[in-house]
Specification:
The protein is of the alpha+beta class. It has one domain. The protein contains seven helices and five strands, in the order H-H-E-E-H-H-H-E-E-H-H-E. Helix 1 packs antiparallel against helix 2. The longest helix has 19 residues. The radius of gyration is 16 Å and the shape is globular.
Length: about 180
């Protein structure tokens, strides 16, 4: 049985599955990003999470419980999630500005990145998503283009990931 308090996040995840089946991973990816951006606009400028100099990180995944419960409810990760993740990873890999894309360990990373990126931009910054850890598999995922743009290494990101689940670099340059 789904608790009423978690009905909306699960509906959002089920909506992602349904949309991939109806309109494909590309359009669904755009839909997820637009929701993150619109919610970021409503929240306003800023950056949440812990900060050390220009490094920003989230000590816990704000969506881990919902994602884990959704996977348990379905018995597996829906292949539609992986379709979107593969699509976004391909775009990042082929892009000349791949640092603008998220590192993706789960489907919520796309939404969360869009939300955080837009709020940072409204505050006059750029947000580079350097890496994250999957709350499901504990797999570490990197955005090597963002790491390079930040002037860091995977080892630098790993040090922050020891106390967090996702790592960002706040870039306040005007380029």
């Amino acid at each position: 049985m789904i608790r009423l308090s978690s009905l909306m996040p699960k509906a959002f995840l089920m909506g992602i599955v349904e949309l991939v089946d109806i309109i494909g991973p590309e359009k669904t990816d755009q839909w997820i990003m637009s929701i993150g951006k619109k919610l970021g606009e409503r929240e306003g400028p800023g950056v949440e999470g812990a900060r050390e100099n220009s490094i920003n990180y989230m000590p816990i995944c704000p969506f881990a419980n919902e994602l884990i419960e959704f996977m348990e409810m379905n018995g597996e990760r829906p292949p539609q999630f992986m379709d979107i993740i593969r699509h976004t990873n391909k775009l990042r890999k082929e892009s000349d500005v791949g640092w603008e894309f998220p590192a993706i360990s789960n489907i919520f990373c796309i939404f969360h990145h869009s939300y955080r990126k837009h709020r940072a931009e409204m505050a006059g910054n750029k947000m580079l998503h350097l890496g994250c850890i999957s709350p499901l598999t504990k797999t570490i995922v990197y955005n090597d283009k963002a790491i390079e743009k930040a002037g860091m290494s995977r080892d630098d990101v790993d040090k922050v990931l020891e106390k967090s689940v996702c790592v960002f670099k706040i870039d306040s340059s005007t380029e």
